[in-house]
Design goal:
Blueprint: E1 30-31, E2 34-35, E3 42-48, E4 50-55, E5 64-65, E6 68-69
Antiparallel strand pairs: 1-2, 3-4, 5-6
């Protein structure tokens, strides 16, 4: 099972765009004392020729936080990245 991703965890980057942290999360649900990152939550802007932000495109098909899929390592970011880091001890199946 993949680890849950949280506010401040990073994505892989893509092409010449570097990795970057997530910048939003749940206001009420926490993993390791850090807000969980859910489908639709934002990633910081990254630049390479142009700049763009991103949101978590999808997460676990069976675990939801506030009616949104919870994010996990390996889940896609809408710009072409994927989640690269998360909790060391909280995992969610699909």
């Amino acid at each position: 099972m993949p680890a849950v991703t949280r506010l401040g965890d990073v994505c892989t980057g893509h092409g010449c765009f570097s990795s970057r942290p997530s910048v939003s999360g749940s206001p009420t649900v926490f993993v390791n004392g850090i807000p969980v990152h859910r489908q639709g939550d934002s990633w910081d802007t990254h630049c390479c020729v142009i700049c763009h932000g991103g949101i978590l495109a999808s997460g676990s098909p069976s675990v939801f936080v506030e009616l949104r899929q919870i994010g996990r390592i390996g889940d896609p970011v809408d710009c072409g990245s994927s989640v690269a880091s998360g909790s060391g001890n909280v995992f969610v199946g699909g």
